[in-house]
Amino acid sequence: MITFDEVTFTYSGADEAVLRDMDLRIGEGELCLVTGRTGVGKSTLLGAVNGLVPRFTGGHLHGRVEVAGQDTRDFPPQEFAHLVGVVGQDPLAGFVTDTVEEELAYGMEQLSLRPEVMRKRVEETLDLLGIAELRHRALRTLSGGQQQRVAIGSVLTTHPKVLVLDEPTSALDPTAAEEVLAAVVRLVHDLGTTVVVAEHRVERVLQYADRLVHLTGDGGVRDGDPAELMLDSDVAPPVVHLGRLAGWRPLPLSVRDARRQAAGLRERLSPQLPDVPSTASTQRGPESGAGLTARRVVVSYGSLIAVRDVDLELRRGEVVALMGRNGSGKSSLLWALQGSGPRRSGTVDVAGSDPGELSARAARALVGLVPQTASDLLYLETVEAECAQGDTEAGATPGACRQLLDGLAPGVPGDRHPRDLSEGQKLALVLAVQLVAAPEVVLLDEPTRGLDYHAKRRFTESVRALAGEGRSVVVATHDVEFTAGAADRVVVMAEGEVVADGPTADVVVSSPAFAPQVSKILHPQTWLTVDQVAAALAPQEASA
Amino acid sequence: MSSSRITAGLTARFRIPRSLHPGAWWLWALGMATAASRTTNPLLLLLIVAVCGYVVVQRRGDAPWALAFRMYLLLGAFIVFMRVVFRIVFGGGQGETVLFTLPEVPLPEWTAGIRLFGPVAAEQLLSGLYDGLRLATMLVCVGAANALANPKRMLKALPGALYEIGTSVVVALSVAPQLVESVQRIRRARRLRGGTQRGMRALRGILIPVLEDALTRSLALAAAMASHGYGRTGRTAPAARLLTGFLVLTGLLGVCAGLYGVMDSSVPAYLGAPALLAGLAVATAGLLLGGRRVRRSRYRPDRWRTAELLTVAAGVTAGALMYVTTKVDPADLYPSLSPMTWPTLGLLPALTVLVGLLPAWLTPPPALTPPQRAGPEHDEPARTHPAAEENARRETSKETVS
């Protein structure tokens, strides 16, 4: 269905090719997962399928890309509309019209289908994706998962043979991600659609993939059976790491497969208990006081109550994960705690003062917040300039920001434009700018979006280090694996209220949506991460 | 089966709520505006405003633009007020019935003919009032069309050759709220960094991320539109495209000149109806030529049905009859200012205006959105704003309810 023939692609001005001599054949009805670390060219590969690369990106593409025998060299992307449906990373940015029904019809209008055909297909698609009750709704008012499903629907109505999805679930909470993936799998099974999907959260998609295309980062590509490639892939979800550790063959890709092989491992682990992260506040003795105390916080927008009477106490040296579905009030709470967002009533106390009543400058010296779109904070041309500006803003000694940045992410080139940094580096830069003000409380809103496993691991270390210095850290996140690895305590919000608050293991293990893969596999034992399991097994191996 | 039952069935079908073709409302409103342009009789003008207002109240939907009618009424009142004020300030002093005298401001020689303040005559006030009222009434007619017809559907109903323009306008309309939203988001982010800067430097800190955001978004949108197949038939010869553009533009200019001629009875006759018709013909030819090369279909297009035709007929009749009345009996339409007389409401012009009221009954009622969808939260900007989370939360809770 899709053929890449000797494809080499170089962005204009770049020295090295992103893709080099790539040969790839993807058959009809395959679900093909594209993996690789950030910046290895996953989006480039996806864009090349219908010719958006290089026609919309610039650069030089050498070789041949064909879809159903149609060459991207001969036709512009428009002429691929009936063959290839493309859904970008941010569905909202790709919407042309403003209501669900019109968006679904838009592609068909361009293909000049007859009105009665359009009516029928719109109804079918609404049902297929389970969005019939949203048909008259304005696109901007939908939740993330709903938007993603509408975006998929809008390309499905033209009955494309190939569906290209770039990071379809990275912004979604676990349940919404399941909904989207269920819809995609249904397409593959029922309609025989070929699906090419790139995703950082490999653990969500891997079990459905028929084929894995792994970009190695040097322009090369490996493709083949997922279980085989995952044996030594540098991008692998926890289930695969656990499988490698336990030596399971064939390598399990889903929790279900792993559980069936896990009886032995559970037995080996049964005499032991997981090692609780060492920086937990209980072990820190007298100096571990309250970093932030919030009482009866209410946030409302007009008549809507976003946060309802929330009490929250953050201890020093503690990492708290704030979880909950999209729209449960997590961001509103963080902004209210920092003092920049609206707060209708309630009190926040940090070291004796309320950040909401202080000037912006004084507030950020108490509580630092890294917002969801972290790059909003950056506006200068180089990393150096941003760091210098950060020092001035915080009144710190020159070079302090750069030093912090080097601690978080060593080797970020100072003359680089912040826009050209990788997601992980960008996050480190924004975090450094906020840390210069030396806040005792650090709040992070969805920081792991767009980070690959390596960047996430490094970020986990940074977060633990911040807590180790005695700061209180709150991370709002959908990422259960990150939570399992980094958090001491989990607070779950729903409808603006706190519905669960307790040590990570207690909260996530019992929850079907928030449990990490390792916990699901080794249930009822309370292991959360592969590292814990490895640490427990190490003495056994040594003695054996 | 009795004929009365058949009629009853037809009426029932006819009265199924739906929104009318936007073009029908616009033509009706233009007819009413033409009628208004033909008279300065305040009684007639107020009658036209009343007719428009009644039809709007009866047949508007519950969308945001439908509530804009009030704004047009206020704007109309403002116009009338300004006209009268101008007549007082730049008096001119025509008329004998001086009501009161304001101290005149002496002006230099070269401003001969202009006078500031001075005696204020009843005639000059009345002429300002009549004039302003006429303009305001025409504006209210346009406002009625805006309140009754969905502006986006109007753009969709544009001829095929103008499709690209329509799309650009739709996209541009959606960009404005997005920009506002990014400005808000980035201002909040700036506060997080301390926000110590003032003036130009602070502006730079907001402007650059906003522009970057807007550029990234427009690139993403362009790519999305291309992959949806937008512009699939962009392979016509440039010459054909040029000819289409030329015909359409010339035609539209002709239509403008013609309309001017029809509205203003003092211009030469050839600039009136003949120019209008010729312009229409040329523009139509251009649009047909352009539309032929466009291969694109419309999802759920608005159709012209009986109700639409009746609406247009009502508007056009009102306009045309008033036009005829000017020729037959202009006395009632332009009340005399010297000597001043009370304006009278002639039977024929009054009936003419009342014809415009017919759509209030001859059209099906508007389709209203079910109550659970209408709501203020849909006007709020969503996305990455904390409020967005809240919106989404409400949506989810609604789902669980329904």
UniProtKB/TrEMBL annotation, chain A:
The keyword Transport applies. Residues 265-289 are annotated as: Disordered. Residues 2-242, 292-520 form the ABC transporter domain. Keywords: ATP-binding, Nucleotide-binding, Transport. SUPFAM superfamilies: P-loop containing nucleoside triphosphate hydrolases. One of its GO terms (cellular component) is ATP-binding cassette (ABC) transporter complex. One of its GO terms (molecular function) is ATP hydrolysis activity. The keyword ATP-binding applies. Belongs to the ABC transporter superfamily. PANTHER family: HEAVY METAL TRANSPORTER. This is Cobalt ABC transporter ATP-binding protein. It comes from Streptomyces abyssalis.
